[in-house]
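Journal club prep — side note

Before the paper discussion, L.F. wants everyone to see what a predicted structure for a comparable chain looks like in token form. Sequence:
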Amino acid sequence: MDLIHESKKTDDIRKELTEAPDLNEYLSENQAYFSSESVQELLNELYQKTDMTKAELARRSGVSSVYLHQLFAGKRNPSRDRLLCLAIGMGSTFEDTQRLLRQSGFAELYARDKRDAIILYGITHHQKLQEVNDALFDQGENTLV
């Protein structure tokens, strides 16, 4: 991500938006701060942080290699749960996982939601997908795969 995109905090941008007298002027002045990265680009960026093959990522994420290659090629749009499986499989940070969900148009993990809290715990404690699914199952929640 460019440094220009990081020079304003989201809360600052939100405050400017709510106080802006004119939407078009606000949009024009803040164009550089809007995210334009595709889900495919973000997935590739996060994958580059790993030292695993795509076959290993597919195994750790519980998805087929064919499906994974389609995602990275932009030919498939993953569900929220599939994105979470990928994030867990890549060992993504909480922040990167939230960014991936946000960029994909899905709700971020919410600590007040029991299922999300279990997933969030797994991500922050670097658990494997099977461990997260076991915890979800044990708590009577839907597993990720």
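L.F.'s comment for the group: The radius of gyration is 17 Å. Keep this in mind when we get to the figures.
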